[in-house]
Amino acid sequence: MKVSEVADLVGISVRTLHYYDQIGLLTPAYTDLSGYRVYSDQDLEKLQQILFFKQLDFPLKKIKEIMNDPDYDQNEALEMQRKLLLEKRNRLDQVIKTINKSIRYRKGEVTMSKKEKFEGFDFSKNPYEAEARKRWGDSTVDQTNEKLESMNAQDKKAFQDQFNDIYRELAEIRHIDPASEMAQKEIKKWYDYLNKIGNYPPTVFKGLGQMYVEDERFTKNIDQFGEGLAEFMCAAMEVFADRNK
To answer: Which SMART domains match (predicted)?
Structure first.
């Protein structure tokens, strides 16, 4: 199939396919005598894999890295993608329930506690673990994962609740000076929390805060608790780290 035919079939732009070729993510099987890119059935299967990963918010650079791995197994990848997409759907279903209840709350039809307003937001699992490994190495991430895996279901639930509570408390003060006494007192709770489940010295803590604003996916997730929260946390974490070197 030619590039325009693939674009029409899949519903993406010709420009996108050209870009995938340019970065070496998806290079068509060959180019015909007229200079047109021609995609094989194998190319289409690879494109399908790429789009599944994109549905899971994987960056193109990471998709390329995964798919170029000598040990990459397409069947295994499909099983993993299905599992992750089902988890994503379940999370979205819960968020939709929260939205529906919020609409009824705004109409005065039901009452809604502060906690109920954030049901469905689960940040206890980091969907971008690869970025953390790349930036800080395996040790910090592995220690955190080992700590979480050693907990029973009740302890995990308690940690998740504390996680969300800290974010809600920080969201309420996100408009004050990040260097203020109150802001630093609250951000220390986040520092102490992280160090209960891993090893986050001030330099790593500061780097984590920078990721909150450098990676739009983190920003989007964090700002669901309040617009501007990611930027506030980044600034407060930087002040805290510099003061506690």
So the answer is: HTH_MERR (SM00422)
Any long-range contacts for 88-91 (C-beta under 8 Å, 24+ apart)? 88/55, 88/56, 91/120, 91/122
Residue by residue, DSSP assigns 98-156 as: HHHHHHHHHTTSS---TTGGGTT---SS-TTHHHHHHHH-HHHHHHHHHHHHTS-HHHH
Residues 222, 149: one domain? yes
C-alpha 209: how far from chain center: 14
Domain match, 136 and 231 both: yes
CATH of the domain at 143: 1.10.490.50
pTM recorded for the entire structure:
0.48
Rg for the chain, CA atoms, rounded: 22
CA distance 80 to 19: 26
How would DSSP label each residue in 142-168? HHHHHHHHTS-HHHHHHHHHHHHHHHH
pLDDT tens-digit series, residues 26-66: 999 888 777 788 899 999 999 999 999 888 877 788 788 88
Q: pLDDT tens digits for 152-169?
A: 777 777 777 888 889 999
Its domain, for residue 52, covers 3-67
Burial class (CB in 10 A: 0-12, 13-18, 19+), 22: exposed
